[in-house]
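Q: Give me the 3D complex with zinc ion.
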Amino acid sequence: MGQNLRPSTLVPRGFVVDDAASGADATLITVRPLSIASACPGCGTRSVRIHSRYPRRLADLPMAGKPVLLVVIVRRFHCDAVLCGRRIFAERFDEDVLAPWARRTARLDDIVHHLGLVLGGRPAASFAQRLMLPVSNDTLLRVVRRRGSPRFVPPTIIGIDDWAWRRNQRYGTIICDLERRKTIALLPDREPATAQAWLSDQPQISIVARDRGGGYAMAAAKALPKATQVADRWHLMENASRAFLDAVRKSMRQIRTAIGATTINPDLLTAAERIQYEGYLHREDTNAAILGLAKAGVTIKEIVRRTGYSRGLVRRVLRGQRSDVFRVRESSLELYLPWLDAQWSAGQRNGAELWRRLAVQGFRGSLRVVTEWTTRRRKAEKVDGAALSRAPSARTVARLMTIGRDNLSKSETVIVAAIEGGVPQLVDAREIIAAFQAMIRKKSLVDLEPWLEQARSGLVAPFANGVVKDRAAVSAAITSPWSNGQTEGQITKLKLVKRQMYGRGKLDLLQARVIGAA
Ligand SMILES: [Zn+2]
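A: Here is the predicted complex, encoded as structure tokens.
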């Protein structure tokens, strides 16, 4: 057992309890300071000569289900220093115990502040009531505002990006300390001048990771001419994919000619596959980021910390188990495809029946997997037979040309082969884009010059020209370990907090909550 509980251990440090009384609504505790002397706030001279005493009433943490009212007997001292203008002063206490003029003890104020940060005004107020904390909605917001954004450690490596206050209507700017993985500022708009003003106050910043729009690049160049700018790798990969899509769009006429009568129907993709494909584009970026870190010798634990992805996911990526497009569904059938093909050709086309027979062979997948397969087969045959449906969209062509032969159906393979034969410059464009993405993944800067040489003519020349214009930042993106990947994560958090505030979030409050709660 420990020692006996003394009343003074329950009140803020530096005070002893003189008296405690239990009222109907609150517990009243009278305390006095332990110290004998106090320093004059005017000259710093310590005095022990007491002039008078007066009570100061403050709310403190609740106790045993009741609010606590603390009555502090504060002393006034004489200041005996000859040259000091003050004759009498009231004693001051440690700010982290009892701030001057405060109506709450610091430990209560701390909790009120955190409640406000995490829950916002109204929800925090009703929760505070449950906790017997005597604070109103307004008080909570006032405390959050008064404490403002916690001062941040001056950053040296930052990420800057925009985020939507309201989608397509109003944008702000978010700035993250990439080393400490924290949001440190929200700016009210995404004007270069606003970002420039903020950056100018932080001359110690040496690296700025930013997207590829010109605004932040210009702001950083003006405010921090010596800082290295890093183009965001995530955006670079996406820009490259988009450049290929543009190349396909420009070639649609030739593509239609090349395909001739051989067309596919985009409906051949089941809904599940389409969703998986969209996820695939995102996963590719994730994979690249994780593999890049691993290659740089970063431990799994550290990768998990930096990217925010789960340990299991990071492991799977590193084992190469996460690069295929159509996962789960397709792979569960894979083993049985030759058998299914044979059954189909022999005329057995009933999905349920096929599934029953597969189950006997040990297939563990659901009936739906099989019926989706039969639906696809049926549609594929219809299309091949009809042979006159419309040409696939540019997006579909771009996808078919980049996902790899193994993932194509028979009719898709025919189409890709026709395009590759008839529009060779598109094959070049695909290789150039793939080379660019590989260069980013492998972080091989030596490849940049030869790549630019190769890319400057042909269908993806506009993309290459963009890279030339932003060459320093793109080079930095290839070599630098820093990227805006985590800034994206911070934006997700920001959106969550914003949503909790039901759109009434003012910037200072939003900033206090996002930055303070981090
Ligand atoms: Zn004095």
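A quick observation: The CA atoms of residues 176 and 184 lie 5 Å apart.
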